[in-house]
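tokens incoming
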């Protein structure tokens, strides 16, 4: 079996073409960015060990295990992050939240950011990479998640502070921007059945999916400077509800931002 036939086999099994390419490159010990190699070597024979490894990886993916867990890393905002089952697999849509947070820090000499529920550190590290002068505190209730986030910060040589806390309960001080991608899926959402490989505490949040967002909105103003912004990622159908929570809490300029698919993916307001 050659490379092209192996990739076709992956698609027959049910893998999207891009995922089949990524998993084959990983099985072959090549860079995941080396897709040009696949075209140049599509008639090369696949070694038995490579085929066995590829089929094993394909089966893991077909059981809904995220590609990031399988290959051990994920690109986010131009950063290569180590990813495993301790944390949520970062989604590309969250980059919209990062861009908004960066815009809110413009014009400040040393903006102070607080990332709540940092997980892998994706948001906090993206902010620090773009604004080296910023002070960034990344918070998570999970010691395991904080350990991985700190590892990513070390690997990327980015200085971010980390603290274990259930949302804002242990946080001191005030910030210019409070940003969060909290759990927002309803406890009984049927889609959770396909997300069993990811930590449930990073996904589900009460009967309506808004339990953690309510906590953040209620307590966020106490940790924001005057004029500071609270920005929250949420589900595809939650924008109106989150805006209502922000308005009820006294935030001004309440608005939502669209993701790449044209869905209102995050909402925020100014103190």
């Amino acid at each position: 079996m050659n490379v092209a036939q192996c990739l076709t086999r992956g698609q027959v099994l049910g893998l999207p073409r891009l995922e089949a390419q990524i998993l084959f490159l990983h099985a072959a010990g090549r860079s995941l960015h080396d897709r040009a190699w696949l075209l140049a070597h599509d008639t090369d024979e696949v070694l038995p060990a490579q085929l066995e490894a590829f089929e094993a990886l394909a089966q893991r993916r077909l059981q809904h295990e995220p590609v990031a867990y399988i290959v051990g890393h994920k690109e986010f905002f131009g950063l290569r992050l180590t990813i495993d089952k301790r944390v949520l697999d970062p989604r590309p849509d969250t980059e919209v939240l990062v861009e908004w947070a960066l815009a809110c820090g413009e014009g400040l000499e040393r903006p102070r950011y607080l990332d709540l529920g940092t997980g892998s550190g994706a948001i906090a590290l993206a902010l620090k990479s773009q604004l080296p002068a910023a002070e960034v505190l990344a918070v998570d209730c999970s010691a395991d998640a904080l350990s991985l986030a700190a590892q990513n910060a070390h690997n990327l040589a980015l200085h971010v502070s980390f603290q274990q806390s259930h949302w804002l309960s242990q946080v001191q001080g005030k910030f210019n921007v409070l940003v969060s991608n909290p759990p927002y899926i309803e406890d009984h959402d049927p889609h959770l059945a396909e997300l069993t490989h990811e930590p449930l505490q990073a996904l589900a949040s009460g009967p309506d999916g808004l339990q953690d967002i309510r906590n953040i909105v209620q307590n966020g103003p106490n940790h924001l400077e005057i004029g500071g912004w609270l920005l929250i990622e949420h589900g595809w159908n939650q924008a109106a509800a989150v805006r209502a929570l922000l308005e009820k809490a006294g935030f001004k300029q309440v608005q939502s931002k669209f993701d790449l698919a044209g869905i209102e993916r995050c909402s925020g307001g100014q103190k």
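note: The chain has a mean pLDDT of 91.
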